[in-house]
């Protein structure tokens, strides 16, 4: 940190100067995103995270060209401000301690021990910041006030240091009841709304300027310049007025094209911005003594908010209480490891203190309660955002890369053609046939080459198609963060989906209570809500009262009340909280299982849970997380009149997955008595069998354990835990794999019983899965549930189909860790009976890079400048994260079930075997394992779309090619996803895939339409005129009009095409092989359609010459001797008029051919008559409008006298373009026959050549 130090006699730089210099220093190092912590921080965990972050790189291309996106700049700003504050705090502390030391020495020289201590304190301060715990708060505040005076107003706050009581008084709040309505009104008037000032919208003026200059328009400006130069001075002494008109036409075309793109871009921006209004951010807040939910924008300082797992922090808050709370601040700080929160101030720097949570952070574990201290622009994110707002670059998506490849091809082809033209002129024509083509004429021909090669309709088509996609997504309730990412759906080959909340409704219902070996009570459930209940024969209890005589039954109900985090909250109505007295204004919030248990206790058992929790207060807890798969609570039991024991009793309740918690039990309660017996192997097998039986019907099973102990024993255990934890921290002991249970016992529990829960499948899911399978997309379930339950749900939603899993079989494997070979071995099984093979597990390979991360040393990057430039160019043409040259696995017609415990032991051979199955279920998976599954799919060339709604889905959502989150899911999941299903409808994914395929199809159709007529049939006349010495068959003016008007309008009509009926029966596009512009499309566009159109137009052109008694022998290879050698009985003016007529005939013939090309290229594989534009589902009247418009333009150009005189056009006789109609019909019939054979013989050579 020496580079940040300044001398005492030098003025201290302001935080703005400090930030600017630090950002420049950080961005001068390519590839690496520095994440250093504040120099004075002693938060070990954050220092480690920062060191890790300094080795992490995101999107290496952005670093290579010294550009950065907004999140990266925000993180740099965060780190810089944090360092600046820590430096000022550290330096101020030195000065304060030095002054105190001097005064103390002068006041009392005998107190040398105190002096030594102060010196040691100064030395310690020079090394690191001092944790504030244990220091008098008053002195801290006094010192901090002086420090804050020098921070130039940046984050000038002491809210993390002052006592909590003072902070509450400052905002006139109450920890128990929250703010009153009166104080809310006052605070809102003082502090405003809790929302960031939006980034300044892009200037319309600069948007238009950008559209005028970028892309093909930039090339057209060059052509325009040379058009004016060809008029004067190159055209002197006899300048051609048509060249001047050509320049004017080019300018008009550029302006109109830019205005159209600008209009469509603004329209798309408005549609996308409307998405944000569909998904308001909700916060749980305590006001007037009632816990309710409000829009996060309505929060004010002093509000008491509750923070739950998976939620986004709604504002800058100071924690009041926290229960194993961890927040992910990666979007703000760049630190990937979650920060463990506390209620104590751990650093004088507010940005490093763990008792603060900041707006936009995500709660990834635990729960907490906090008081809002800053909102809106006053938050840390608001302060940091001011430094970086509006400086980001738009993300490069697959669609952008495809367009870039197209542009690069056009530029290369155009310049090669121009260079070839000038080489031909300089090396041959200007020497052998001097005067045939002048310099000015060659400039005009070069302009024609450039204009002809540019598909002017493509940018407008891309803009329009994205607008159409935005409208469709808006209607389908799908929120896409970047419209261009929809194109990726064209390549999706695997959908890895979570079960709960995605395939199912996440509305769990308790169906049965089970205890002992046979004890069971079936909860009465209305038949129209839950289907497929287990058979109740010989098991159904007559009533709950009769069953409740058993002690295990009572304990199950009692545990459901205490070990439960569900809570009642007031609902929102128009942004205002309803009166709590209204029944319809109260809603239950919390985990779906907790809500189901809550309803069981209140609705079926008439238990007052709130009073139960009040008289049996919770004193400790361990929240549920996806790794432990259990939750523990400790409650101080209420004393009864019959209780003679003076010591209080603590009830510890644990609930979780039976296969995870059964090993923690030592006893169990019997069926009909309260006596607890030691657990035997027979009992374990019984529990497993009952769980398997329920799982086969799709039920989820939760076990409940209990343990009672005297309060004195509990206090002793907690005290020992605290001492051992402090000792481990001091010794920096290695972290154990055993979860931290906050001092609660990990074993010796009594097994009370189990609950069976049913979460019904979403009704639209089975059909959606069938459609996905028809589209050659595999749907893999990745869930944390038991394998049997997961398999049952998979069958209900058609992930396991009858044809594959039932008729074929379900594969699995068993791990054998100890065998004679000395190496772990896997036995592949089918239907748990048939042995397939045995495999000795090799070394596990983990060489899979995380998405967007590239590890490259700075020395390597700096030493190879040319490689950096080349890689930067390649980034805009191909995705650096996609698997390259990877052949997909050959699929086998069987299903497979894999459990999470086996995933960590799988080698590449086993992954290949598992991922080659057509149907897959991964059960009992952790977030890390879900992430690994996605990475293994990607490693094998699959394009993965991951769906999910829970916090544990976030890593996989972020890693996937497309992350699809549910609106009903957690904020963490929605933050990680690329798109959000606002209606939580799984079938919307299939619609999005169809939209992505349609987008790709329509852009290909635009390209296949534009290339034959717009480039090939216009370029060939220039080369023929130059090489074969014939008159130019198409004037530059007509070529430009053809490209800019005729083709552009028809290409835009093509964008509005509906999906072909076979679009969802094709295989997904292979990303690294399938491109918008590939060799198949070029062959079809140029060698097939282009040559047919060019031949037809030339046929009409030469037929007209023959009708004028000019034979072909008098045309070809005449060059400058045309009309004289061999002689033609025509004057020069007559030959000029004949050429102008011929050019107009060529132009009209080309328009006619393109009309037929428009009708044939509307479909890729389907017949025109099955997808006609006149009626039915495929109706597209814009095609007819385009054809009429094209014909109208041709008539105006050839018949209006002004165009005839200025641009030298002539009227066209119909008979000379009639052959074009015949050739067009032949082209149409030829393409229909081609499509028929492609459909009939999908594996033929013709099908492989199809575009």
TrEMBL record:
It is a multi-pass membrane protein. SUPFAM superfamilies: Calcium ATPase, transduction domain A, Calcium ATPase, transmembrane domain M, HAD-like, Metal cation-transporting ATPase, ATP-binding domain N. Gene3D superfamilies: Calcium-transporting ATPase, cytoplasmic domain N, Calcium-transporting ATPase, cytoplasmic transduction domain A, Calcium-transporting ATPase, transmembrane domain, HAD superfamily/HAD-like. One of its GO terms (cellular component) is plasma membrane. InterPro entries: ATPase_P-typ_cation-transptr_C, ATPase_P-typ_cation-transptr_N, ATPase_P-typ_cyto_dom_N, ATPase_P-typ_P_site, ATPase_P-typ_TM_dom_sf, ATPase_P-typ_transduc_dom_A_sf, ATPase_P-type_domA, Cation_transp_ATPase_P-type. GO terms for biological process: intracellular potassium ion homeostasis; intracellular sodium ion homeostasis; potassium ion import across plasma membrane; proton transmembrane transport; sodium ion export across plasma membrane. Residues 158-232 form the Cation-transporting P-type ATPase N-terminal domain. The chain crosses the membrane at residues 204-229, 241-263, 406-427, 447-469, 1081-1105, 1144-1160, 1181-1202, 1214-1230. Pfam families: Cation_ATPase, Cation_ATPase_C, Cation_ATPase_N, E1-E2_ATPase, Hydrolase_3. Coiled coil: none annotated. It is found in: Cell membrane. GO terms for molecular function: ATP binding; ATP hydrolysis activity; P-type sodium:potassium-exchanging transporter activity. Keywords: ATP-binding, Cell membrane, Membrane, Nucleotide-binding, Translocase, Transmembrane, Transmembrane helix. PANTHER family: CATION TRANSPORTING ATPASE, SODIUM/POTASSIUM-TRANSPORTING ATPASE SUBUNIT ALPHA. This is Cation-transporting P-type ATPase N-terminal domain-containing protein. It comes from Adineta ricciae (Rotifer).
């Amino acid at each position: 940190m020496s580079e940040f130090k300044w001398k005492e006699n030098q003025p201290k730089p302001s935080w703005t100067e400090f930030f600017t210099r630090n950002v420049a220093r950080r961005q001068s190092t390519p590839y690496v995103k520095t994440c250093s912590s504040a120099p004075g921080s002693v938060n070990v965990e954050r220092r480690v995270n920062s060191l890790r972050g300094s080795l992490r790189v995101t999107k290496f291309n952005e670093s290579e060209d010294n550009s950065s996106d907004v999140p990266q700049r925000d993180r740099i700003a965060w780190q810089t401000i944090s360092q600046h504050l820590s430096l000022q705090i550290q330096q101020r502390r030195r000065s304060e301690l030095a002054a105190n030391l001097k005064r103390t020495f002068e006041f009392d020289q005998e107190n040398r021990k105190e002096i030594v201590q102060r010196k040691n304190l100064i030395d310690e301060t020079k090394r690191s910041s001092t944790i504030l715990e244990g220091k008098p708060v008053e002195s801290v505040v006094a010192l901090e006030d002086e420090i804050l005076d020098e921070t130039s107003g940046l984050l000038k706050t002491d809210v993390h240091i002052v006592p909590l009581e003072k902070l509450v008084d400052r905002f006139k709040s109450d920890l128990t009841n929250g703010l009153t309505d009166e104080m809310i009104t006052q605070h809102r008037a003082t502090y405003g709304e809790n929302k960031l000032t939006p980034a300044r919208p892009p200037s319309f003026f600069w948007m238009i300027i950008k559209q005028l200059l970028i892309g093909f328009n930039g090339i057209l400006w060059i052509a325009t310049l040379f058009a004016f130069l060809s008029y004067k001075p190159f055209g002197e002494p006899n300048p051609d007025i048509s060249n001047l008109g050509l320049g004017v036409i080019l300018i008009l075309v550029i302006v109109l094209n830019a205005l159209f793109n600008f209009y469509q871009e603004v329209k798309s921006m408005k549609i996308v911005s409307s998405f944000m209004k569909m998904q308001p951010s909700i916060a749980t807040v305590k006001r007037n003594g009632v816990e309710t939910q409000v829009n996060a924008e309505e929060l004010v300082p002093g509000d008491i908010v509750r923070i739950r797992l998976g939620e986004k922090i709604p504002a800058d808050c100071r924690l009041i209480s926290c229960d194993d709370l961890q927040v992910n601040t990666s979007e703000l700080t760049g630190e990937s490891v979650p920060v463990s929160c506390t209620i104590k101030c751990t650093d004088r720097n507010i940005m490093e203190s763990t008792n603060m949570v900041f707006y936009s952070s995500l709660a990834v574990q635990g729960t907490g309660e906090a008081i809002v201290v800053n909102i809106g622009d006053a938050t840390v994110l608001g302060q940091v955002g001011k430094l970086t707002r509006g400086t980001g670059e738009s993300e490069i998506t697959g669609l952008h890369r495809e367009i870039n490849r197209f542009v690069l091809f056009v530029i290369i082809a155009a310049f090669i053609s121009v260079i070839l033209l000038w080489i031909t002129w300089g090396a041959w024509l200007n020497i052998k046939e001097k005067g045939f083509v002048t310099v000015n004429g060659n400039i005009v021909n070069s302009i024609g080459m450039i204009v002809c090669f540019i598909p002017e309709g493509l940018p407008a088509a891309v803009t329009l198609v994205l607008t159409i996609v935005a409208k469709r997504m808006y209607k389908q309730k799908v929120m896409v963060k970047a419209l261009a990412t929809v194109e990726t759906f064209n390549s999706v080959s695997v959908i890895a989906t979570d079960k709960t909340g995605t395939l199912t409704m996440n509305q769990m219902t308790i169906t049965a209570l089970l205890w002992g070996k046979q004890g069971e009570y079936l909860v009465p459930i209305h038949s129209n809500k839950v289907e497929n209940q287990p058979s109740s024969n010989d098991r159904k209890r007559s009533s709950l009262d009769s069953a409740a005589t058993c002690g295990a039954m009572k304990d199950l109900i009692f545990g459901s009340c205490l070990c439960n985090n569900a809570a009642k909250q007031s609902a929102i109505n128009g942004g205002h909280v309803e009166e709590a007295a209204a029944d319809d204004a109260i809603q239950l919030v919390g985990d779906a299982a907790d809500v189901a248990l809550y309803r069981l206790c209140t609705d079926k058992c008439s238990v007052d849970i709130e009073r139960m929790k009040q008289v049996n207060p919770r004193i400790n807890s361990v929240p549920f997380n996806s790794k432990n798969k259990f939750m523990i609570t400790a409650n101080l039991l209420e004393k009864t009149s019959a209780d003679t024991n003076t010591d209080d009793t603590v009830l510890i309740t644990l609930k979780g997955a039976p296969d995870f918690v059964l090993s923690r039990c030592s006893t169990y309660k019997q069926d009909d008595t309260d006596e607890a017996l030691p657990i035997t192997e027979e009992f374990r097998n019984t529990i497993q069998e009952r769980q398997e039986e329920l799982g086969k019907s799709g039920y989820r099973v939760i076990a409940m354990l209990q343990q009672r102990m005297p309060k004195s024993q509990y206090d002793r255990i907690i005290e020992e835990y605290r001492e051992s934890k402090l000792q481990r921290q001091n010794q920096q002991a290695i972290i154990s794999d055993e979860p931290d249970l906050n001092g609660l016992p990990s074993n010796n529990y009594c097994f009370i019983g189990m609950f069976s829960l049913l979460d019904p499948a979403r009704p639209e899911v089975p059909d959606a899965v069938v459609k996905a399978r028809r589209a050659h997309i595999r749907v893999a379930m990745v869930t944390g549930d038991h394998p049997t339950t997961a398999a049952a749900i998979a069958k209900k939603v058609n992930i396991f189909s009858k044809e594959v899993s039932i008729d074929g079989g379900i594969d699995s494997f068993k791990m054998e860790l100890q065998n004679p070979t000395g190496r772990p071995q896997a036995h592949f099984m089918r239907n748990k009976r048939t042995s397939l093979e045995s495999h000795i597990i090799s070394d596990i390979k983990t060489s899979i890079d995380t998405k967007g991360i590239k590890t490259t040393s700075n020395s390597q990057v700096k030493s190879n400048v040319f490689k950096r430039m080349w890689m930067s160019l390649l980034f805009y043409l191909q995705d650096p994260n996609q698997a390259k040259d990877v052949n997909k696995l050959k699929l086998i017609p069987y299903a497979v079930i894999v459990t999470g415990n086996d995933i960590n032991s799988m080698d590449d051979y086993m992954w290949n075997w598992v991922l080659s199955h057509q149907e897959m279920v991964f059960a009992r998976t952790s977030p890390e394992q879900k992430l690994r599954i996605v990475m293994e799919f990607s490693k094998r060339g699959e394009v993965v779309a991951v769906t999910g709604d829970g916090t544990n889905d976030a890593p996989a959502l972020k890693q996937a090619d497309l992350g699809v989150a549910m609106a009903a899911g957690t904020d963490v999941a929605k933050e990680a996803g690329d798109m959000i299903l606002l209606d939580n409808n799984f079938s919307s994914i299939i619609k999005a895939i169809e939209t992505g395929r349609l987008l790709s199809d329509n852009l290909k159709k635009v390209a296949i339409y534009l290339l034959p007529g717009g480039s090939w049939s216009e370029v060939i006349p220039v080369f023929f005129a130059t090489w074969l010495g014939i008159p130019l068959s198409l004037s530059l003016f007509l070529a430009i009009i053809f490209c800019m008007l005729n083709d552009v309008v028809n290409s835009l009509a093509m964008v509005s095409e509906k999906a072909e009926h076979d679009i969802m029966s094709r295989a997904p596009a292979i990303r690294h092989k399938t491109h918008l512009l590939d060799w198949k499309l070029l062959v079809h566009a140029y060698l097939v359609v282009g040559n047919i159109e060019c031949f037809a137009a030339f046929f009409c052109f030469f037929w007209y010459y023959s009708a004028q008694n000019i034979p072909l022998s008098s045309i070809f290879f005449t060059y400058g001797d045309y009309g004289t050698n061999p002689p033609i009985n025509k004057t020069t003016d007559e030959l000029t008029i004949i050429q102008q007529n011929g050019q107009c005939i060529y132009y009209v013939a080309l328009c006619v051919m393109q009309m037929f090309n428009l009708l044939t290229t509307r479909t890729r594989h389907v017949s025109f008559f099955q997808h006609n534009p006149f009626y039915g589902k495929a109706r597209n009247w814009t095609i007819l409008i385009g054809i009429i418009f094209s014909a109208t333009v041709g008539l105006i150009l050839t018949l209006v006298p002004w165009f005839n005189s200025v641009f030298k056009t002539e009227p066209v006789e119909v008979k000379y373009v009639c052959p074009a109609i015949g050739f067009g019909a032949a082209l149409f019939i030829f393409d229909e026959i081609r499509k028929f054979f492609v459909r009939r013989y999908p594996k033929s050579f013709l099908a492989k050549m199809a575009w």
